[in-house]
Amino acid sequence: GQAGNVFACRTERDSIVRAGFFTNRLVLLGIAVELGILLSLVYLPSIRRFFGFAALGAKDWALLASFPVILLLAAEAGKYVLRLRA
Q1: Mean pLDDT score of the chain, rounded to an integer?
Q2: Are 70 and 4 in contact (CB under 8 A)?
Q3: Which one of 1, 19, 76, 84 counts the least CB within 10 Å of its CB?
Q4: Other C-beta atoms within 10 Å of 3: how many?
């Protein structure tokens, strides 16, 4: 969800399409680091055992990947309504 949220919060009214997904390299670096930490927690055996985590399957990842998209689409819809009212 945080990846969708960071893109949604980049502008108050403008669409992320207009602002650009790839214009802020630090945001992209932050998302890459976040995913790297997540993958380490889930797939490195020693870390996984320490925290008591289990490896995720494809269905789990598909469900998790949908949340940033849903959050971003909801934020974009809200911004669209704001632009219509202006």
Answers
A1: 90
A2: yes
A3: 84
A4: 19
